[in-house]
Design a protein that fits this description.
544 residues, mainly beta, Immunoglobulin-like, 5 helices, 9% helix, 38% strand
């Protein structure tokens, strides 16, 4: 079997290079051949079925540079369909490769699919994850880092080391059991613990040398909980958030909401010994806590003393920290021009979209909705139905751009928007839990967040100068968050709750960014190797 997989990998790597000359020929190619399997894992001391990538849990990091072409051949050795999605990778003009069921057919068991991605005009820290079913609860995730090109200035010296730190809440139940609970209409119980890079308490360690500075790329890859990250006796300087270089603010602890990614610099400036790394849940009772170790190379002793304390249920503390995260206007991003050269605050918005979540019971089962619509997936990816003009799969405008106030109902919700418009989106959270939303294909400016109900007067307090640009934002309980977004990326893009059970039970929809143009400058054609399923089965992509 291994020989067959290797042969398939080699064949498809060669094939995709020849077929996909549409990407810029001068930009480098990086090749990845991954075999996805089940395997026993014991992150919290209990045997459970994990999803491994090339035998690893978490999966291997993807290292890349701005504009690199990533050729990622994924062989599915599971007994069920599988997809990987790329949290924060914008897939410019190419939502076919996004790896969610609204855009991409699943990889059948025993088959493979080659993703062709380009990290066009991007830098920063992101991650990939399995998007189908409830696979994310079994692993299959890993870090993505996009370095600046050599001649593009970075607003801090090269660190002595660069670590991926994947944190997240975790269940000891198999993903199949969790999925069965949700399918039966029940809610999931409280998680069993927190992992750092796939390991439980005291399992993860990071080696440092005294006097040197290190970069930690922290991503919350968990299923629902916001987490606070801190290091005993050490400060952290924030330098990057989901592709944006930030003002270099120093924190003693950092809230990382589910789905989010942050880069911090940590200097090993303390006496030589081992220090606790602590990750704890926010806004929960009880508070989950786990530890790792920052290990000095010349350490004189093990970790000692009490764990450093952190915030627990304080909302104002987190809100104030969120407002302090701002763009470094003078730093370069993926291009040499300063990040502040794009004056988003001077652009008139053409539309305001207000989105409100709600829980409810439909047909005797728990569901979640946005603007009263609880998303149900059709048998055909929406993007394929759009491309092939297949009727009966979705209806543009099947979700309103304002809360309706009505009861929850099931539909394949697609919100129609126009290409090259500048839009304001308000996430209104009337529930008593913190929420986190992600939009594929884009970064957006988080211009405002506050308690209570949003009104047009709320715009008076927007940050129209140096708001951070990112792809995942939190919305505090009984509060709102407002974003500005330039819809410059044609395609079908998933907007979802990062609270994974809510996403699974309908708290998501697709944003159709539409143009009548058929120019390659606006959108790439369907990939020649695209998998076809549902009502698209038997059709043809493009001539080979």
């Amino acid at each position: 079997m291994a020989l067959n997989i290797t042969a398939v990998f080699a064949m498809f790597s060669c094939l995709t290079v020849s077929l996909f000359a549409i990407t810029a020929a001068e930009d480098p190619y990086r090749f990845f051949n991954w075999n996805v399997t089940y395997g026993d894992i014991y992150p919290l001391g209990v045997r459970q079925q994990g999803i491994l990538i090339d035998g690893q849990f978490p999966g291997p990091d993807i290292h890349s540079v701005t504009n690199d072409n990533l050729i990622i051949n994924v062989f599915n050795s599971l007994d069920e369909p599988f997809l990987l999605s790329w949290n924060g990778i914008q897939q410019r003009r190419n939502s076919y490769e996004d790896g969610v069921f609204g855009t991409t057919c699943p990889i059948p068991p025993g088959k493979n699919f080659t993703y062709i991605l380009q990290v066009k005009d991007q830098i920063g820290s992101f991650y990939y994850f399995p998007s189908l079913s409830f696979h994310k609860a079994a692993g299959g995730f890993g870090g993505i880092r996009i370095l600046s090109r050599p001649r593009i200035p970075v607003p801090f010296p090269d660190p002595a080391g660069d670590y991926t730190v994947l944190i997240g809440d975790w269940y000891t139940s198999n993903h199949t059991d969790l999925k069965a609970q949700l399918d039966s209409g029940r809610r999931l119980p409280f998680p069993d613990g927190i992992l750092i890079n796939g390991r439980g308490p005291s399992g993860a360690s990071f080696n440092v040398e005294q006097g040197k500075t290190y970069r930690l790329r922290i991503s919350n890859v968990g299923l629902q909980n916001s987490l606070n990250f801190r290091i005993q006796n050490h400060k952290m300087t924030l330098v990057e958030v989901e592709g944006t270089h930030t003002l270099q603010t120093t924190y003693s602890s950092l809230d990382v909401h589910v789905g989010q990614s942050y880069s911090v610099l940590v200097t090993a400036d303390q006496p030589a010994q081992d220090y606790y790394i602590v990750v704890s849940s926010r806004f929960t009772s009880p508070v989950l806590t786990t530890t790792g170790t920052l290990r000095y190379s010349n350490s004189a002793g093990p970790v000692s003393g009490p764990l450093p304390g952190g915030p627990t249920v304080q909302i104002d503390w987190s809100l104030n920290q969120a407002r302090s995260v701002r763009t470094n206007l003078t730093a370069s991003g993926p291009r040499p021009n300063p990040q502040g050269s794009y004056h988003y605050g001077l652009i008139n918005t053409t539309r305001t979209i207000i989105l409100a979540s709600s829980p409810g019971i439909v047909n005797g089962k728990q569901r979640y909705a946005i603007n009263s619509v609880s998303y149900i997936a059709p048998d055909t990816p929406l993007k394929l139905a759009d491309y092939f003009k297949i009727d009966g799969v979705f209806r543009a405008g099947s979700i309103q751009d304002r809360p309706t106030g009505g009861g929850i109902y099931l539909d394949t919700s697609v919100l129609q928007t126009d290409y090259r418009t500048f839009v304001e989106i308000v996430f209104q959270n009337d529930e008593d839990i913190i929420q986190s939303y992600h939009l594929d294909g884009y970064s957006f400016f988080v211009v405002g967040l506050d308690g209570g109900q949003w009104t047009p007067a709320s715009r008076n307090n927007y940050n129209l100068r140096d708001a951070v640009s990112r792809c995942t934002t939190q919305v505090y309980p009984k509060s709102w968050t407002a974003i500005y977004i330039a819809l410059d990326n044609v395609g079908m893009w998933n907007l979802r709750s990062e609270f994974w059970a809510r996403q699974y039970l309908g708290q998501q929809f697709y944003l159709r960014v539409y143009t009548t143009s058929t120019s390659l400058r606006d959108e790439y054609p369907i990939p020649k190797n695209a998998l076809l399923c549902g009502k698209a089965s038997g059709r043809h992509t493009r001539p080979l």
